Amino acid sequence: MRIKALAGAAIWAALAGTAVADPGELAASSGGPGDYVGAPLQVLDSATACNLKSGLCLRAGAASTVAVASAPVASAGADSPSAKSAPVVPRFERTNSEGAPWTLEFAANLKKAALKGNALFIFFDLEDPGCVENRQFTALYQAPLKAGPKVAARVALSPDDGFRAGHTYRIRVIQLINNKEIVLTEGDVALQ
């Protein structure tokens, strides 16, 4: 499932009324410690350390999600001594694939410090060519951030919301400042 974004300010105006979970508002499910139901995104007060200068550090956020080995993405000229090492996209799978979400936690050192206020967490399905450029996203969540250079969040990516096994997604965190889209951080994740 993909959603084509509306032009300009129309989409951002529509988001002004989007419900947001407060910390602790997510209800624990019977799936085990760390499994959540309810609001799909929760901004966390404390972040695990992220050693990346820019980008997302991802890890499993519940017992129902596990990290699996990732192969580097192929790059042209990889045999060249001057070639950079190929990026590795983190991969996660569900331990119970019967409609359960992939629950992930991520932390990031931001490209630009966040201002206190709302941020948008946008998920693009990279299996759809041109999705980022055409603003066609699978999901978009809104949540308040504290001012600062870091962010941490827990997100449940459900098949009911359009997330599919075998697809790679770009997670982009932005803020809208003076009618400009400021990208705070972004990174890719593969779901298995």
Characterize the structure shown:
- This protein has one domain (3-69, 88-191): Sandwich (Immunoglobulin-like).
- 4% of the residues lie in helices and 45% in strands.
- It has one helix spanning 9-15, and strands at 3-4, 27-28, 36-37, 41-43, 55-60, 65-68, 91-94, 102-114, 117-125, 136-137, 139-145, 148-157, 168-177, 180-191.
- The strands form four sheets. The chain has a six-stranded mixed β-sheet with strand order 6-7-14-13-9-11, with no helix packed on it.
- β2 and β3 (36-37) form a beta hairpin.
- The longest helix has 7 residues, at 9-15.
- It starts with a strand and ends with a strand.
- The model is unreliable at 1-36 (pLDDT under 50).
Count of individual beta strands: 14
Separation of termini?
17 Å
Total helical segments? 1
| Order of the strands making up the biggest sheet | 6-7-14-13-9-11
- Work out the count of structural domains: 1
Oligomeric assembly: single chain
CATH class category label: Mainly Beta
Structural class, by secondary structure, is: mainly beta
The topology string of helices and strands comes to EHEEEEEEEEEEEEE
Q: What's the gyration radius in Å?
A: 17 Å
